[in-house]
Amino acid sequence: MQLSGKACLLILLCSFTVSAQQVPCQLSVRLESDQQSTAAGSHNDTSTSRQSYALLSALLAKSGCQVKMQALPAGRAIKMLEDGSLGVMVGMSETAERARFSYFVGPHHIERMVVVGRRELQRSVADLYQLLSWPGLISVAEGAYYGPKWQQLLQQQEGLQQRLFYASGNQQKLAMLASDRVVATLEDEAIIDELLQQKDLAQRYVKLFVLHENPVYFAISRQAISSDLYLQLQKHWQHMLQSGEVDNIKQNF
Question: What is the mean predicted confidence (pLDDT) over 213-239?
Answer without folding.
Answer: 97
